[in-house]
Design brief:
The complex is a heterodimer. Chain A is an alpha+beta fold. Chain A has a domain at 182-239 and 247-402: FAD-linked oxidases, C-terminal domain (Vanillyl-alcohol Oxidase, Chain A, domain 3, 3-Layer(aba) Sandwich). Helix content of chain A is 24%, strand content 25%. In chain A, the strands form 5 sheets. Chain A has an 8-stranded antiparallel sheet with strand order 16-12-14-13-19-20-18-21. In chain A, strands 5-6-10-8-9 form a 5-stranded antiparallel sheet. Chain A is globular and about 60 Å long. Chain A starts with a strand and ends with a helix. The relative contact order of chain A is 0.15. Chain B is α/β, with parallel strands linked by helices. Chain B has helices at residues 12-23, 35-48, 66-77, 93-96, 100-128, 149-169, 201-213, 225-234, 237-240, and strands at 3-7, 27-32, 52-57, 82-85, 132-136, 175-181, 218-221. Chain B has a 7-stranded parallel sheet with strand order 3-2-1-4-5-6-7, with helices on both faces. In chain B, strand 5, helix 6 and strand 6 (175-181) form a beta-alpha-beta unit. In chain B, helix 1 (12-23) runs parallel beside helix 2, helix 1 (12-23) packs across helix 7 (201-213) and helix 5 (100-128) packs parallel to helix 6. Chain B is globular. The chains are: A alpha+beta, B alpha/beta. Chain A binds chain B through residues 2, 19-21, 23-26, 30, 61, 64-68, 89, and chain B through 12, 36-37, 40-41, 43-44, 47-48, 186-187, 190, 193-194. The complex binds flavin-adenine dinucleotide and NADP nicotinamide-adenine-dinucleotide phosphate. Flavin-adenine dinucleotide is lined by residues 9, 37-44, 48-49, 59, 79, 101-103, 106-107, 109-111, 113-114, 116-118, 162-163, 167-168, 295, 396 of chain A.
């Protein structure tokens, strides 16, 4: 067992763990006395990818491609392959990920285990909706081929299964046809929550990708104001001037002092961001990389939050503006405004995942620098609103929700636990299933 | 398009290097002792863009099989531009140091089999008058230490042998590259606790690929091991023998 810091993206969950690895997909899991948990690229924010006092199996060694049907866009990969590697291979062949989170540095296994979603949730559903089959390796050596028709129960338990049902060794996914690596985008400045709602409704049918960046500090009539961004894959190869792809890959070489991101800097960021566009609507063409992964060009950007780390909070609430307003009011009132606040409407494509987070409604994602009890109190308040509205909070981004909240958000957690591998566990799972 | 022979192709470092050749459309000939693992790597290389991939199952401890494997490779690829030798084992020193039989086993896999392969490859490359023989040695061969001097002895032999061979083949325009990795996170070192000094096989593979392209002679990889080894080599023996290294 070794003490390890910063194994998850929020940078404050220290753990003592044994790191093991699975190097070949045809081998059995490494032997361990302690309970185990697969570990992808650690892009989950809290403790769902951690297993304090236990073993974590490094899943990134399984990083090989298995087959690529370039005609039909079916790709079979080992579960430690990163989305960035998939894009590098498939985009030049005219295929794109069916769903992608806001960073390409996640593994396929991690993307399945959190059943991740992207800006096109209203069109293609979650990542898990586009998985045709995978192999689940259990600690007793059993290998289950899981698909919508075979071992269906393990298929749905493992999609969004938080790594607890066994180790996924490989998976097959259905890619999406594209004509070019570019996205035709439109950015629209809007001034209220109502405006956001109508933009979101009007865009759903015609735009594959929709998302809004919200100015969390705006209050009164302007509550919820922000920029609505929508886009589609460019229909044909662009001629003339090619939009440039910045290859900066800056990295944040050291941790910022705590407190750099205080109310003042957040305020400045929001003002700068929201004022840099003068016209109401701006159209532009973007390479897919900055469009989907604006933060990936600053490697290790999470370090700007200093050594105390930060919380991310992502919830989904039914499309009822009462709950949305309450959430935004609470944040504005607490003056702990989030650096990045994203708002998006989830569609009704249902995921096969038993414990999947995405469901029809409005989802918010916010960052909060860790300011101790103050921050925790605010997040508790948000949880009360989400519970009241019968919404849910995203485990991939959570480090603090109470067992009571979790069990209310995911009422079928008990049914799910039947599928947990008896030799697997996680810090998150122990926390949210602790007796209430 | 390059024709590349990879001996010990199931090694994580070798595979990371092979992937870069695959992405450049190379033809690859993979040798290892485990068919299933070779097939797993072969399909990866195929998907990544290799124009063709062949696998050949050989236990490299059997030096009498070496000529045959090189002949089959030439037969299949027509010619070889680059040969990379990478197989190896890292036995627990404490477990083998009291047995000459076990010591010889370690020396065979990590040392003698290399000398056999190099001898035969040299016979092929010298008249061809071009190409590269790249060989994975180790920083462990730079100085004997109590914790792994048997492995270190084999690697020292590989380093010295390739140095001489480089001198000989330079006259024929054939490049010999000696690769000295430091700590690399691969199955061979799965049980070690990893510190910041450890590199990924991808990083080391990329440096090997570059070094071959640039016709380098000796590389330490990652580069800082050159300086670590300068320090380690400069410690006087009278002190060194008292250290626990
Ligand atoms: C900048 C940023 C933006 C993000 N944007 C989004 C977004 O838009 N939408 C979204 O949904 N998420 C988003 N996320 C969250 C991220 O996509 C998820 O946390 C993702 O699951 C991380 O994958 P990972 O490979 O890093 O896995 P880890 O975080 O290491 O692990 C995640 C889970 O997967 C399990 N796991 C890993 N490998 C395997 C395997 N082989 N078999 C079984 N289980 C396994 C682990 O046990 C753990 O439970 C974002 C994260 C960041 C840092
Ligand atoms: N990892 C390090 O820190 C490090 C440092 C310096 C040098 N090196 C050297 O780098 C090279 C590659 O090692 P690695 O780190 O990539 O480790 P690895 O992934 O464990 O690779 C070693 C491979 O050699 C194969 N092999 C062993 N004996 C063989 C035999 N008799 N016949 C055929 N194949 C055989 C093994 O095959 P099986 O899988 O079938 O057993 C294994 O795939 C080795 O020469 C090693 O000494 C490594």
């Amino acid at each position: 067992m070794t003490k390890r810091k910063n194994l998850s993206w929020g940078r404050f969950n220290d753990v003592e763990v044994k790191i093991q690895s699975l190097n070949w997909r045809n081998q059995n899991l490494p032997i361990s006395e302690e309970k185990q948990l697969p570990y992808g690229n650690g892009r989950s924010y809290g403790d769902s990818c951690l297993n304090d006092q236990g073993s974590m199996i490094d899943g990134k060694k399984l990083n090989r491609f298995i087959s690529f049907d370039r005609q039909n866009g079916l790709l079979k990969v080992e579960a430690g392959v990163m989305l960035s590697d998939i894009l590098a291979l498939t985009v030049p062949n005219g295929w794109f990920l069916p769903a992608t989170p806001g960073t390409k540095f996640v593994t396929v296994g991690g993307a399945i285990a959190n059943d991740v979603h992207g800006k096109n949730h209203h069109v293609t559903g979650t990542f898990g909706c586009n998985i045709t089959q995978f192999e689940l390796l259990r600690s007793d050596g059993q290998r289950l081929l899981c698909s919508p028709t075979e071992n269906k129960d393990y298929f749905s338990a493992s999609i969004g299964g938080l790594g607890l049902t066994g180790m996924i060794t490989w998976a097959e996914l259905k890619l999406k046809r594209i004509q070019s690596p570019y996205i035709d985008c439109e950015s629209i400045k809007y001034n209220s929550l109502n405006e956001f709602m109508s933009l979101s409704e009007e865009s759903a049918a015609q735009y594959e990708y929709t998302v809004a960046w919200v100015d969390c500090l705006a209050t009164g009539d302007q509550l919820g104001k922000g920029h609505f961004i929508r886009g589609n894959h460019t229909g044909s190869i662009i001629t003339g001037k090619q939009p440039s792809l910045s290859q900066s890959n800056l990295s944040v070489p050291f941790s910022f002092p705590n407190g750099v991101l205080n109310g003042l800097t957040v305020n400045m960021f929001n003002t700068l961001y929201f004022n840099r566009q003068f016209a109401r609507t701006k159209e532009f063409v973007s390479h897919y990389d900055p469009f989907f992964y604006p933060l990936d060009s600053i490697l290790d950007w999470n370090r700007i939050y200093g050594s105390k780390g930060f919380f991310q909070y992502q919830c989904v609430v039914p499309k009822n503006d009462q709950a949305m307003r309450e959430i935004m009011h609470s944040i504005a009132d607490a003056k702990m405004g989030s650096f990045l606040t994203v708002l998006k409407e989830f569609g009704d494509v249902e995921s096969p995942g038993m414990l999947s987070f995405p469901r029809k409604g409005m989802t918010f994602a916010l960052d909060f620098p860790n300011q101790g009890p103050r921050t925790l109190a605010l997040l508790e308040r948000l949880d009360d609103i989400v519970k009241e509205a019968k919404g849910a909070v995203y485990p991939a981004k959570d480090a603090r929700m109470s067992a009571e909240s979790f069990q209310q958000y995911y009422p079928n957690w008990k049914a799910f636990s039947e599928y947990i591998d008896p030799h697997f566990s996680s810090s998150f799972w122990r926390r949210v299933t602790a007796p209430i | 398009m390059k024709n590349v022979l990879i001996i010990g192709a199931t090694s994580a470092i070798a595979h990371a290097t092979a992937r870069l050749y695959a992405q450049h459309g190379a033809q690859l000939y993979l040798i290892g002792r485990n068919k299933e693992k070779l097939d797993i790597n072969a399909s990866d290389l195929q998907v990544l863009g290799a124009s063709s991939v062949f696998v050949d199952v050989v236990d490299l401890d059997d030096v009498s099989a070496h000529q045959g494997l090189i002949d089959r490779c030439i037969n299949q690829l027509n010619s070889i531009d680059i040969a990379l030798i990478a197989h190896g084992t890292l036995a627990d020193q404490a477990e083998i140091q009291t047995s000459y039989e076990k010591t010889l086993e370690a020396l065979t896999t990590n040392g003698l089999s290399y000398l056999s392969l190099l001898t035969r490859l040299a016979n092929y490359f010298e008249p061809q008058r071009k190409g590269t023989i790249a060989v994975i040695s180790s920083v462990a061969g730079d100085r004997g230490r109590q914790s792994n001097y048997i492995y270190g002895t084999a690697k020292a032999a590989v380093s010295t042998f390739t140095q001489g061979l480089r001198n000989r083949l330079a006259k024929s325009g054939v490049n010999v590259l000696t690769i000295k990795p430091g700590f690399v996170d691969t199955p061979m070192t799965a049980d070690f606790d990893k510190s910041a000094l450890w590199a990924s096989p991808e990083k080391v593979g990329a440096e090997i690929f570059e070094a071959i392209k640039r016709g380098k002679d000796i590389i330490y990889t990652p580069f800082f091991w050159r300086y670590i080894m300068i320090v380690i080599k400069s410690i006087p023996e009278i002190l060194f023998k008292k250290l626990n290294l």
